[in-house]
């Protein structure tokens, strides 16, 4: 991706990363399709600017996904960068979670993302160019108590994106996984479920309960700046060969290194046992 003007299609622009990215993309001279479930919340981003288009989009509505992509292509002629940012958090122990909430977070964080990818890929394939940016999380590399299902959705995004990268690279299309740490995006506030009255299990008070309270208490105090994150993403994509994954914020960097080094050490420590599972392998 060069510094030339691009058309960005960004989901979840009412607040947080989506809003910040829309602002920075437009400030950098690009065109932007800004979407939100309530389109009135993003009207201020497009007023008086023919380089921006606001569209209503609930990523769990497959018909609306197709309509939004078609409207963007009709208005701008194509989509160069898809940013799958829309997502929610969910706080519960694995055992405490409800069926409806589990399915809801996967519908938004995984299946909505997948629907958008499949909607934009035909146009990108036809032009043999394009970039798909999928928001994962540091929680897509390591999980924490109280956010197991959130982490599960982000691990799914990581796997899907890794496979997608290999499939579309020969077609001139690239991907980027964004892995933020703690940012002031209201992720632990408005976008997440409330606590679970009547469902909180006392045995998890010291793990899940403490973690859940910590996430809530830190809302609005996180070190990450969404506007700075947006600028980092734009800078990354402007490189001749941009990274495949981009942890964002110092905490994400530290946690990613710690997790990967720990995994590598454990795998190496069990090398003999691992290899003993092959046919004709010596016993561990």
Automatic annotation (TrEMBL):
Residues 6-190 form the Ketoreductase domain. GO terms for molecular function: oxidoreductase activity. It comes from the Bacteria. The keyword Oxidoreductase applies. SUPFAM superfamilies: NAD(P)-binding Rossmann-fold domains (SSF51735). Transmembrane segments: none annotated. Pfam families: adh_short. Keywords: Oxidoreductase. Belongs to the short-chain dehydrogenases/reductases (SDR) family. PANTHER family: SHORT CHAIN DEHYDROGENASE (PTHR43976), SHORT-CHAIN DEHYDROGENASE_REDUCTASE FAMILY PROTEIN (PTHR43976:SF16). NCBIfam families: PRK06180.1 (NF004824). This is Short-chain dehydrogenase.
């Amino acid at each position: 991706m060069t510094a030339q003007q691009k058309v960005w299609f960004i989901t979840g622009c009412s607040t947080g990363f989506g809003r910040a990215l829309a602002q920075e993309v437009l400030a950098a001279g690009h065109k932007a399709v800004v979407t939100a479930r309530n389109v009135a919340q993003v009207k201020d981003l497009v007023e008086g600017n023919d380089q921006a288009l606001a569209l209503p989009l609930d990523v769990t509505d497959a018909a609306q996904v197709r309509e939004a992509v078609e409207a963007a292509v009709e208005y701008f002629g194509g989509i160069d960068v898809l940013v799958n940012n829309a997502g929610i958090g969910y706080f519960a122990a694995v055992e405490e979670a409800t069926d409806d909430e589990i399915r809801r977070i996967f519908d938004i964080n995984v299946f909505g993302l997948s629907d958008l990818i499949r909607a934009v890929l035909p146009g990108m394939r036809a032009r043999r160019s394009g970039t798909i940016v999928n928001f994962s999380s540091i929680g897509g590399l390591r999980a924490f108590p109280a956010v197991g299902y959130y982490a599960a959705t982000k691990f799914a995004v990581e796997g899907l994106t890794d496979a997608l990268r290999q499939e579309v690279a020969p077609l001139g299309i690239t991907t980027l996984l964004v892995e933020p740490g703690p940012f002031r995006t209201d992720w632990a506030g408005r976008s997440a479920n409330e606590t679970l009255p009547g469902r909180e299990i006392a045995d998890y008070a010291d793990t899940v309960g403490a973690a859940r309270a910590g996430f809530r208490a830190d809302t609005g105090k996180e070190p990450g700046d969404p506007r700075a994150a947006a600028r980092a993403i734009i800078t990354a994509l402007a490189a001749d060969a941009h990274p495949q994954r981009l942890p964002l914020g110092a905490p994400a960097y530290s946690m990613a290194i710690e997790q990967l080094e720990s995994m590598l050490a454990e795998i190496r420590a069990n090398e003999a046992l691992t290899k003993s599972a092959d046919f004709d392998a010596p016993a561990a």
